[in-house]
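From the methods appendix. Each design record in this collection lists the tokenized structure first, followed by the designed amino acid sequence. Records were kept in a plain field format so they could be parsed without special tools. The example shown here is representative of the layout used throughout.

RECORD:
FOLD TOKENS (178 positions):
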């Protein structure tokens, strides 16, 4: 059964540790909680266990779920509440009988970020977030919103410690970001 979260719930954060989509949901939840009308969160629970988590920020939806989630219920739900974009794995998209308009690779660290060696690449932790946006825009990043709303969201997540931004510069010009 799907239910709207109306207050802070540790169950959502615990469940969302499983993959990149869950991490995104958890970061939004930690930043916005249930206090804002543009950010809504749902849990699917079966036999007292969470089987899926959904986050909808404006018209962008993110879905994280177990293999034994009730996909019939999820498919009916996401089509009923609607979305402009839905981020999930290809396997989940198939189970929801949705044909993706766009697909891409999921990049995940296989090691702790502190163990990575960036000796020859000048990275900056104190990044101007507009530089990050400009790199994404120049690269044709898919689904990138307008600069103002994007900056407002990312600044909120960075200030709350729920996101980090890094940029690679060549001759002081930003050329890549994460």
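DESIGN:
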């Amino acid at each position: 059964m799907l239910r709207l979260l109306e207050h802070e719930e540790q169950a959502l954060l615990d469940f969302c540790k499983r993959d990149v989509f869950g991490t995104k949901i958890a970061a939004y939840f930690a930043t916005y909680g249930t206090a804002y009308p543009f950010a809504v969160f749902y849990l699917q629970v079966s036999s007292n266990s969470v089987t899926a988590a959904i986050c909808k920020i404006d018209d962008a939806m993110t879905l994280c779920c177990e293999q034994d989630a009730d996909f019939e219920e999820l498919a009916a739900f996401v089509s009923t509440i609607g979305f402009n974009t839905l981020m999930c794995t290809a396997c989940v998209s198939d189970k929801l009988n949705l044909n993706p308009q766009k697909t891409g690779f999921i990049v995940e660290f296989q090691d702790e970020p502190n163990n990575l060696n960036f000796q020859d690449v000048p990275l900056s932790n104190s990044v101007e977030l507009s530089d990050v946006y400009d790199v994404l825009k120049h690269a044709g990043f898919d689904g990138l919103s307008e600069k103002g709303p994007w900056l407002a969201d990312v600044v909120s997540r960075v200030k709350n410690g729920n996101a980090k931004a890094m940029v690679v510069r060549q001759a002081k010009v930003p050329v890549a970001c994460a």
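APPENDIX NOTE: The helical segments are 10-15, 20-32, 71-81, 90-95, 129-138, 147-159.
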